């Protein structure tokens, strides 16, 4: 057997998969890491009020902090990290990244100025940029092809789980925080209660990172290239260009999923301003929905993609993604216009199902249509595209509409509904145009893999 930058030229070893129990242990551990990344990313949504008051910020500034500031490194560094993950030890990349972004989450709590807080948010985005490309590639190499979509969909259950914990546990913490005076600690000195929340949120991931370092690096599989030279960036770009009719609708259309998700960072503020629900009350209700409905949606999405593929539908992952986006956009656009908070919560159920499904199915679709040697890089490009555009068009546009168009406490509901319906609907329609080309690309890839085996 000959190895070159992580490539194996003896393809007869391709059937030597890790045990099923160990493979799913890796999936569960990385899902936990993903959930922690979402917790660290989303906890700011629960602290909009005290952070605004502490720094004297506007809704537009908070929207920038929740979206573009985090996204700057999160999306721009994905491709470099993907290049590394396609060549070098993926568990080490993930472990080091976790330690870094968790440290930056704690640093948010030590910020004394808005600029320091923004810098720490940049750091969170930088660290989290390494997770998805390496995790998607690592998980795919633990499973036979027909089971890869289900495993990757399970990984993306971490989105709903992380958000659920952020809202459920975060809501309880915010309730506690409201009754606490400022606190003093050795070395760091005086901290406001909201700052303590950030410090506490950064600690669990450091422990999980130590477990990630213990993962065994699996054999890299499903590759058309037998050397690093044949899997160069030029070859990657050439492959994308050849299959652009499938990739363009997939990468751009799936922007609808994070667009809606990041726009919903305004939900705690909306329930407060429109219906008078404080953060703890809303967070408990929404956290329960996410923790129960979200994982179910992700698992169902994984089942649906696998079911469609095994029934002879090579476009199964994209079809499942389209179904999920339609459900997500329709339910979420209606949600802000609900007459009562109880009806809005009911609409959060199909919205959460669609969100979890679209996240899981979209990630599975982009990995499934890509040769093994390019999986980390395509995952990086996917994250760059959907999250970059989603964050730019989600939180800041809602914040801008709040400040400039729909003023007053009730205005936020129209801002959220407009962004979801108009932008999310257009993106979903564009995704639907790529189904046939996606199926053709799957057939082409599998034929080439069978020829090179």
Describe this structure in words.
It is built from 22 helices and four strands. It is mostly helical and 453 residues long. The relative contact order is 0.16.
Describe the structure using short key phrases.
Growth Hormone, Chain: A, 4 strands, 74% helix, two-stranded antiparallel ribbon, two-stranded antiparallel sheet, mainly alpha
Protein topology:
Elements: E1 3-4, E2 7-8, H1 20-42, H2 48-55, H3 59-76, H4 78-85, H5 90-108, H6 114-128, H7 131-140, H8 145-155, H9 157-178, E3 183-185, E4 189-191, H10 193-202, H11 204-212, H12 233-242, H13 244-253, H14 256-263, H15 267-275, H16 279-310, H17 316-334, H18 341-368, H19 375-393, H20 395-404, H21 411-431, H22 435-452
Antiparallel strand pairs: 1-2, 3-4
Helix pairs in contact: 1-5, 1-7, 1-8, 1-9, 1-11, 3-6, 3-19, 3-20, 4-19, 5-6, 5-7, 5-10, 5-11, 7-8, 7-19, 8-16, 8-18, 9-16, 13-21, 13-22, 14-19, 14-21, 16-17, 16-18, 17-18, 17-21, 20-21
């Amino acid at each position: 057997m000959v190895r070159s930058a992580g490539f194996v030229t003896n393809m007869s070893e391709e059937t030597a998969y890790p045990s099923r129990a160990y493979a799913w242990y890796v999936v569960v551990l990385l899902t936990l890491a993903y959930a922690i990344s979402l917790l660290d990313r989303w906890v700011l949504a629960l602290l909009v009020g005290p952070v605004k008051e502490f720094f004297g910020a506007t809704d537009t500034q908070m929207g920038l902090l929740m979206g573009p500031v985090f996204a700057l490194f999160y999306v721009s560094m994905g491709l470099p990290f993907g290049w590394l993950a396609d060549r070098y030890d993926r568990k080490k990349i993930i472990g080091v990244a976790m330690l870094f972004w968790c440290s930056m989450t704690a640093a948010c709590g030590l910020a004394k100025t808005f600029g320091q807080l923004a810098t720490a948010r940049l750091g969170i985005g930088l660290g989290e940029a390494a997770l998805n490309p390496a995790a998607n590639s690592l998980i795919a190499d633990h499973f036979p092809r027909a089971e890869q979509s289900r495993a990757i969909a399970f990984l993306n259950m971490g989105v709903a789980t992380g958000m659920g914990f952020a809202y459920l546990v975060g809501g309880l913490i915010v309730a506690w925080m409201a009754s606490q005076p400022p606190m003093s600690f050795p070395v760091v000195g005086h901290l406001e209660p909201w700052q303590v929340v950030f410090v506490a949120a950064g600690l669990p991931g450091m422990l999980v990172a130590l477990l990630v370092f213990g993962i065994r690096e699996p054999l890299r599989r499903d590759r058309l290239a037998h050397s690093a030279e044949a899997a160069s960036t030029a070859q990657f770009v050439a492959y994308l260009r050849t299959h652009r009719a499938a990739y363009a609708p997939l990468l751009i259309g799936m922007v609808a999923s994070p667009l809606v998700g990041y726009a919903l960072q305004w939900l705690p503020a909306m329930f407060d301003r429109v219906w008078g629900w404080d953060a703890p009350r809303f967070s408990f209700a929404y956290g329960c929905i996410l923790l129960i409905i979200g994982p179910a949606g992700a698992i169902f999405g994984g089942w649906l993609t696998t079911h469609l593929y095994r029934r002879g539908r090579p476009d199964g992952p994209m079809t499942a993604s389209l179904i999920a986006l339609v459900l997500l956009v329709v339910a979420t656009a209606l949600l802000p216009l609900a007459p009562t908070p109880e009806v809005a919560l009911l609409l959060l159920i199909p919205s959460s199902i669609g969100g979890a499904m679209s996240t899981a199915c979209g990630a599975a679709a982009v990995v499934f249509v890509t040769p093994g040697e390019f999986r980390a890089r395509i995952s990086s490009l996917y994250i760059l595209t959907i999250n970059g555009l989603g964050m730019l068009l989600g939180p800041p546009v809602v914040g801008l509409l709040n400040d400039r168009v729909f003023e007053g406490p009730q205005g936020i509901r129209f801002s959220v509904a407009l962004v979801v319906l108009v932008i999310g609907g257009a993106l979903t329609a564009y995704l639907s145009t790529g189904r046939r080309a996606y199926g053709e690309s799957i057939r082409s890839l599998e034929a080439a893999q069978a020829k090179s085996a």
